[in-house]
Amino acid sequence: MYEKIQTQYMVVSFSHKKIDITMREKLNIKEEDIVPFLKKINACESIKESVLLCTCNRVEIYVSIYEKKAACEHIYQCFAQKSGVSLEYIRENALLRLNEYAIYHIFGVASSLDSLVIGETQITGQLKSAYKLAFDNGLCAKDMTRLMHFAFKCAANVRQQTDISAHSVSIASTAVFMAAQKLAQNNQNLETLPVLVIGSGEMGRLVCKHLLNMKAHITLISRTQKNAQSLSAELNTSQICVESYEKLPQLLGQFSLIFSATSAQGYVITKDMITPSQNMQWFFDIALPRDIESISYENVHIFCVDDLQEVVQEHREAREESAKNAHKIVEEFTSHFFTWLQTLSVEPVIKHIRYLAKESSIKELDRAVKKGFLPVEYRDNVEKILHGAFNNFLHQPTMRLRQASETHHGDPIIEAMKSMFDISDEIVMLNGYKCEKDTTF
């Protein structure tokens, strides 16, 4: 068993910054497999709690740990076994962050500073859902609740104090904007060219909304037609026509512009479903795993999430100043988080030291009365004197201990005090802690 020292935080990340979409597909964990996967992660005695975030940009796990080396190796092995990707590749390509760097990374992710599209609006909700899934299944508790509380608060401050999300941006909006650019290069536009949208989930909904803003006429299909009809009713427009999913092969030949955003685990559109044509076709595949098989016909152009970089770069440059200000906010919240954690750990220590001093004085007072050293009628007054004396004696040390807890060097001092007074973590946690739990799921 590992000695239960103060909790550390760690991130293991596979993101668009280093891992291409083909490998991210292999590393991606299906929604129904996330809980069993995290249970396997938590089976390691060096890991306390875990949360898994899977989006089209990233697959990454956040853990609270006792010991870095064993935890890291266990996580690598779990990903290798689940994905079939070699352990050597995972070791070489995983981004590993610990403690302050891990917290900074998570706060940056929550604030959409680490996204492919800086300022995109979906990531905070995706992180909340990932945390809620882990929490509801008993895979995370105190450590991740503390962390996520600060992450969501940090993201809210970034949105409020910068204009990085002033205009709604997302992978979906970027894909629609890129499609409009491609059409303009061919003297076409979204108002006159009908669009086929496959998928009625959150990404499909966003695609439809952005297309409607550009006055496009949409044919919508979904594996569950009822969901497509519900989305059409929600958007409340005559510009959406719902068709049966069974008609997909025939519909593909009728549209030049297709967006696919399903949660399918295999290809929705295969190469045998596409017929070579003289007409240009643009496919935008914004799903992970991808919906569209690679096709090499001359007039067929397929764009996946990683192909949005040319539009993303324009967006990034436009928001460069806002991103700088946002990173400063993330730095401040990272510092505040660790200060807050240390404060949580020092107050119960101070409380217990005072308790020990009081218990010792009361014990000696009772002994003095029992032995006849002190008349019983003097007991209450002497207790008040003793109480004042130990409070006066402990005032300076406890003040210094609180000051030490507000620095990054406070941990060794606090641990030394706990050791000197034989104060265990169990005693410390009897005091409990309060952390606002974000409930806006």
TrEMBL record:
Binding site for NADP(+): 199-204
Keywords recorded for this protein, A-Z: NADP, Oxidoreductase, Porphyrin biosynthesis
GO-annotated biological processes: protoporphyrinogen IX biosynthetic process
Catalysed conversion reaction: (S)-4-amino-5-oxopentanoate + tRNA(Glu) + NADP(+) = L-glutamyl-tRNA(Glu) + NADPH + H(+)
Residue ranges occupied by any Glutamyl-tRNA reductase N-terminal domain in the UniProt entry: 12-162
Stored CDD domains: NAD_bind_Glutamyl_tRNA_reduct
Quinate/shikimate 5-dehydrogenase/glutamyl-tRNA reductase domain span: 183-311
Protein residues bound to substrate: 55-58, 115, 120-122, 126
Database matches in InterPro entries: 4pyrrol_synth_GluRdtase, 4pyrrol_synth_GluRdtase_dimer, 4pyrrol_synth_GluRdtase_N, GluRdtase_CS, GluRdtase_dimer_dom_sf, GluRdtase_N_sf, NAD(P)-bd_dom_sf, Shikm_DH/Glu-tRNA_Rdtase
Active site as annotated: 56
Classification via Pfam families: GlutR_dimer, GlutR_N, Shikimate_DH
Protein EC: 1.2.1.70
Enzyme class: oxidoreductase
Sites marked Important for activity: 105
Biological pathway: Porphyrin-containing compound metabolism; protoporphyrin-IX biosynthesis; 5-aminolevulinate from L-glutamyl-tRNA(Glu): step 1/2
Residue ranges constituting the Tetrapyrrole biosynthesis glutamyl-tRNA reductase dimerisation domain according to the UniProt record: 326-423
Domain of life, source organism: Bacteria
GO MF annotations in UniProt: glutamyl-tRNA reductase activity; NADP binding
Function: Catalyzes the NADPH-dependent reduction of glutamyl-tRNA(Glu) to glutamate 1-semialdehyde (GSA).
Miscellaneous information on this protein: During catalysis, the active site Cys acts as a nucleophile attacking the alpha-carbonyl group of tRNA-bound glutamate with the formation of a thioester intermediate between enzyme and glutamate, and the concomitant release of tRNA(Glu). The thioester intermediate is finally reduced by direct hydride transfer from NADPH, to form the product GSA.
PANTHER family noted in UniProt: GLUTAMYL-TRNA REDUCTASE 1, CHLOROPLASTIC
Subunit note: Homodimer.
Family designation: Belongs to the glutamyl-tRNA reductase family.
Free-text comment about domains: Possesses an unusual extended V-shaped dimeric structure with each monomer consisting of three distinct domains arranged along a curved 'spinal' alpha-helix. The N-terminal catalytic domain specifically recognizes the glutamate moiety of the substrate. The second domain is the NADPH-binding domain, and the third C-terminal domain is responsible for dimerization.
Name of the protein this chain belongs to: Glutamyl-tRNA reductase
Organism: Helicobacter japonicus
